[in-house]
Amino acid sequence: MGSPGMTEPSDIPLSLRRAVRVCVLAVLASIAAAALLAGAVLLPVPPPVLPLVLLVVIGLPLGAADKLPIALRVLRAPDRLRRGHLHALRRQLAQLPETRHPLGL
Predict the structure, then answer these.
(1) What percentage of residues in the chain have a pLDDT greater than 90?
(2) Where is pLDDT greater, at 8 or 32?
(3) CB distance 22 to 14 below 8 Å
(4) Which of 11, 56, 90, 95 is packed most tightly, with the most Cβ within 10 A?
């Protein structure tokens, strides 16, 4: 658990580019897991290796899908909502006081 007031990594909104990357990674991980499972079924796998193969086949897509709900929420959000975040950030930046450069530049 994090400290009070600290944001968890899952609370930080993803950018559009990062959301696309998360979705592509989840798809590629699922394809890799399916290929590994197909290879384990078609080729003779030694019995001691079978639990490791099953662990990877189950764990790989689960690990890749960790941020998938957040990424899908970002991708489904209308552009006006994404632009609203940008306008809010610009309003916050406009409220900051102007300061002089420390070197006088």
Answers:
(1) 25
(2) 32
(3) yes
(4) 56
Mean pLDDT for the chain? 82
Residue 24 lies in a domain: yes
Q: Name the residue range of residue 58's domain.
A: 13-90
Query: What is the spatial distance between Cα 4 and Cα 32, in angstroms, rounded to a whole number?
Result: 39
Question: Distances in Å between the alpha carbon of 84 and those of 17, 29, 41, 73, 91?
Answer: 17, 33, 50, 15, 10
Please check whether residue 53 is in contact with residue 45, taking contact to mean a CB–CB distance below 8 angstroms.
yes
- On whether the CB atoms of residues 37 and 57 are closer than 8 A, the answer is yes
Q: Which 8-state DSSP code applies to residue 13?
A: P
Contact 82, 16 (CB under 8 A): yes
Name the nearest CA neighbour of 73 among 7, 9, 18.
18
Number of domains in the chain: 1
Task: Give pLDDT tens digits for 76-90.
Answer: 877 656 666 777 888
Cβ-defined contacts of 45-52 (< 8 Å, 24+): none
In the 8-state DSSP scheme, what is residue 99?
A: -
